[in-house]
Specification:
Elements lengths: L4 E2 L5 H6 L3 E7 L4 H16 L4 E7 L4 H6 L7 E6 L2 E7 L4 H12 L2
């Protein structure tokens, strides 16, 4: 079972050093759509652990990270490859939409 890494200003730079596709979910505890996306995101992390690394960023605990990515609405899922944002999904989308985006960037 792949864990979703919780990122903050302290561990962010170290986490982003590694290569490969990184999926970052920006969310907040007070956001109902964010809570709805949670189980879907956890499933993706388990099912796609060989393809990408998954992380959570609580915008209230790490506002500087939300600012770096220009997050204006939550939930927002940002998909990064080689240190660059390659895709962004704002709001809750279908599980298939996330899978397709990650696979495309991973070259699958």
């Amino acid at each position: 079972m792949a864990a979703v890494t919780c990122l903050n200003a302290t561990n962010y730079l170290e986490y982003m050093k590694g290569s490969g596709v990184k999926v970052l979910r920006f969310w907040a505890t007070w956001c109902p759509p964010c809570r709805a996306l949670g189980p879907i995101y956890d499933e993706l992390a388990k099912e796609m652990s060989e393809t990408a690394a998954f992380a959570d960023i609580d915008i209230d605990k790490a506002p500087s990270l939300a600012s770096i990515y220009g997050i204006r609405s939550v939930p927002t899922v940002v998909i990064v490859k080689e240190g660059k944002v390659r895709d962004q999904i704002v709001g809750v989308a279908s599980k298939g939409r996330y899978i397709d985006s990650v696979k495309k960037l991973a070259g699958q």
